[in-house]
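Database export, one record per block. Field names are fixed; values are copied verbatim from the stored entry.
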Amino acid sequence: MGMKMNKEKVINKLIENTNRSTDECNIIYDVLNNNGIIGRKNKERIKSDFIEKLKVSEKEANEIYNICMGIVVKDFFE
């Protein structure tokens, strides 16, 4: 099951926190939505998708994943 968050809100937070383009942030959102964000197995799959679809290094993929986790967790507790 994917994320159930307001897409526009998440995209804006991703743009703000990752300094990536709107198109890249849409890709990030789609990857998260398709995989779900909770779970160790999902983390590796999500990072692999970031590497493949965004053409980033493993380090960058990990940083993007951590930013996404921060956004999701913060939104959950708001």
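Remark 1: The mean pLDDT is 87.
Remark 2: The longest helix spans residues 58-77.
End of record.
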